[in-house]
Amino acid sequence: MRKMKGLSLILFCLIFLLTACSGGGSTAENNTPPAPVENEIKEEVKEPAPEEPAKEEPPAKDLGGRVIKIAAWWDLKPAGATASEKARLDKIAELEKKYNCKIEFVNVPFEEYMNKFTTSVLAGEPFADIVQMEYKAALPAILKGQLLKVSEFTTEQNNINKDADLMTKSPSIGGDEYGFDNPGSLGHGIHYNRDLFKKLGLPDLQELYTNGEWTWDKLLEVAKQATKDTNNDGKTDVWGYSGWAMDVLKHFTAANGGNVVDAVNGKEMLSDAKTIEAAEFVNRLYNVDKVVKVKSGNPMDWEETNTFKDGDVAIFFAAEWMLGDLTFEVGIVPVPNGPQGSPDATYANSGAAAKFIPKGVEDAAIVYQIYEETFDIPQTEEYPSQEYLESMYTNQEDIDMIREHITGTGVITLDDAYPEYPTGAFVDDIIVKNQSVTATAEKYKQQAQASVDKLGK
User: Fold this and answer.
1) Which regions are flagged for Basic and acidic residues bias (predicted)?
2) Handedness of CA 265, 357, 387, 351 (dihedral sign)
3) Integer Cα distance of 83 and 78 in angstroms
């Protein structure tokens, strides 16, 4: 009897234990016993942070229908021929509505431009709110207090002072930053006639540059190889080089680490050792080795800048905008550095220009802001000026050369800003009259310094 009671008790406990372990569930995942309460990790439930109310942008300033004028000696209005231009036209329309204004692009003939600028600013009523201006014209205007500094119409919130991908500050002039423009890349450098190079079996200049062999001596060597009588009539019919002698001197001076005038310190530089060394080299091109084609018969004639278009010149300096309608393929490399030069400076930027805001423009800050915003559009280019450069050059190697080795290497050259600065007479004496370089530099040194002093720093 006791055994039965013992067995009954054991059986009862066993049934109780099995019932407890089964938990009364019917699915497999419920067969795992829960962890002890003391070992449970309880996730803290966080109350969602209250959303901050969106900051409302202050309403755009109502300009009451004001016309904002943007002037140049050509039409700056986007033509609408590319996706970027179409997007900018749409943006302009949007901004006109946003600010209740009208954006007008003013085209003034070059020969009338500076007179219109000067007379209108002196009258206190600038003919345009934003003006395109060459640096050589801007310097006198700056010295007379007729242009505003970038710092006077921008804040740290403007793109130009932050990412600078819509607008960038142009190089300083007159000791401060006055100019601005949208970022871009331009092809200012030594171009060469690829077709002629292949025909004559000349070494490719980009290969020479890449191999570190592109020097003044190498340029002269190649130019001498190209200068020849190919039809045996006793006359040279293919030439190594061409150009406007004034420009040629300035470019080689810049590539030698110099400048024909020091506009920052107000000093003449025709007598500087770097200028003299460049002038000696240019004289070799024209008068010693005679590799330069002078189509007009006068190396001081500006039209010599276009002589290369005849197709019988191997090497020439040109800007990309000069390459339209050529019948031959071109390549580009930087102007080779002289003995005292560096890759940071490869050409003289005598035609440097930018946008400026004249003194007397009402609400200059909002005018600038609107102009900057016209470029705040979806970017369709992989890099600045892509569409433009691809329209000018057929080889990607040329575009890469411009972007990687030429862009940003221009030396602002402002001798044209100074009244009667004798660069022309200096070059004429050396190249046309074949006078001594050092004697010529000494001859014009005082006149050059007097010209600088007359305008002031």
Assistant:
1) 39-61
2) negative
3) 11
Question: pLDDT of 135-187, one tens digit each?
Answer: 999 999 999 999 999 999 999 999 999 999 999 999 999 899 999 999 988 89
End-to-end Cα separation, the chain, in angstroms: 127
- The Cα 306–Cα 243 span in angstroms is 8
Q: Which residues of 150-182 are buried (b: 16+ CB within 10 A; e: fewer)?
A: beebbeeebbbeeeeebbbbbeebbeebbbbeb
Q: Domains in the chain, please, with CATH?
A: 66-183+353-387 (3.40.190.10), 188-351+413-455 (3.40.190.10)
If one counts every other C-beta atom within 10 angstroms of the C-beta of residue 395, the result is 14
Distance CA 346, CA 295 (A): 26
| Helix residue ranges, H only, 211-336 | 216-226, 245-254, 273-283
Count CA within 13 A, CB hemisphere, residue 438. 1
C-alpha–C-alpha distance, residues 149 and 165, integer Å: 20
CB atoms within 10 A of CB 98: 15
- pLDDT at residue 59 in the model: 76
Smallest CA-to-CA distance from 413 within 215, 276, 269, 242 is with 269
Q: According to the model, what pLDDT value does residue 117 have?
A: 98
41: which 2 tokens? 């990790």
Residue linked to tokens 């024909």: 260
Using an 8 Å Cβ cutoff, are 258 and 272 in contact?
Answer: yes
Tell me the pLDDT band of 35, cut-offs 50, 70 and 90: very low
- State the CB neighbour count (10 A cutoff) for residue 269: 24
Residue 300: burial class (beta carbons within 10 Å; 0-12, 13-18, 19+): middle
Which pair of structure tokens corresponds to residue 144? 């007379």
Strands 330-333, 188-193: pairing is: antiparallel
Region at 108 (left for phi over 0; alpha for psi -120 to 50; beta for the rest): beta
Q: Tell me the β-bridge partners of 176.
A: 173
Residue that the structure tokens 């345009």 belong to: 128
pTM of the model: 0.83
Structure tokens of 423?
């660069």
Q: Average model confidence (pLDDT) for the chain?
A: 89
Structure tokens at 364: 């200059």
Q: How far apart are CA 196 and CA 420, in angstroms?
A: 40
